[in-house]
Amino acid sequence: MFTGIIDHCGKIAQIELLPQGLKIWVKHSFTDLENGESIAIDGICLTVASFQDEIFCCDISPETLKITTARDFKVDQQVNLERALLPTTRIGGHFVMAHVDQIVHITSIRLFNDFVEMTFQGINSFSKKYLVKKGSIAVNGVSLTINELTDDGFMVMLVPHTLERTNLKKLRKGDFVNIEFDTLARMVAKQIENLHIENLQVENLNNVKLQIENVIV
Predict the structure, then answer these.
(1) CATH architecture of 8-83
(2) 3-state secondary structure of 163
(3) In whole angstroms, what is the distance from residue 140 CA to residue 96 CA?
(4) What sign for the dihedral angle of Cα 58, 64, 65, 69?
(5) Are residues 178 and 43 in contact, defined by beta-carbon separation less than 8 angstroms?
(6) In terms of C-beta density within 10 A (0-12 exposed, 13-18 middle, 19 or more buried), how is residue 54 classed?
(7) What is the pLDDT of residue 195?
(8) Which positions ≥6 away from 152 have C-beta within 8 Å?
(9) 3-state DSSP helix/strand/coil % of the chain, to nearest 5
């Protein structure tokens, strides 16, 4: 589990195509990585397979390549890095699993002095219920607040600190990003859906009972 507060940007040093998947090496500034630990790269939860000096290696599965921007990774590309949450960590963002739900694209970038407003579109119809105005969302692993909702997307405002610490400053109109919906929003939506189903089942049962009673009468 992560918080969406990026530690720093790393850089992809090498990419190896595997028969199934990818292997990537990333330059970083961490001082105490461990083999087997989880790390979020642009919001994708991966495992540190090995490390040496200032470079660590991760394997990326075919499924991850299918649903994330990892399939478009390039050498020298900057990526957002965050290590897994510790019990003593201050949670400044929101709970992020780094399990990417889908990718969306940027349709608008507007400058407001030192701030940047970005609009993303491409949210599938099933997932719109997870978007809440003033709620949380992770974009390339960065915890952000939804300012406004659009027909099939959302708008966020990036503050100077976020632009300085993440690779979001390098995004351009048309670029694709990884999206993870807020876990709490998903849980609430699921419970409401279950409650709706239960109510329908009770209503159907009552209708059946009423029909039987009418037949008997």
Answers:
(1) Beta Barrel (2.40)
(2) helix
(3) 11
(4) negative
(5) yes
(6) middle
(7) 73
(8) 121, 122, 123, 125, 128
(9) 30, 40, 35
Flag whether pLDDT at 126 surpasses 90: no
Query: For the whole model, what pTM was predicted?
Result: 0.87
Contact 47, 33 (CB under 8 A): no
DSSP SS3 for 182 = coil
CA distance 94 to 3: 5
- According to the CATH classification, is domain 102-184 in 3.30.70.360? no
Where are the domains positioned within the chain?
A: 8-83, 102-184, 185-217
Pick the closest to residue 139 from 108, 164, 166 (CA basis).
166
Q: Are 120 and 104 in contact (CB under 8 A)?
A: yes
Instruction: List, for residues 157-199, the tens digit of each pLDDT value.
Output: 999 999 999 999 999 999 999 999 998 888 887 778 777 666 6
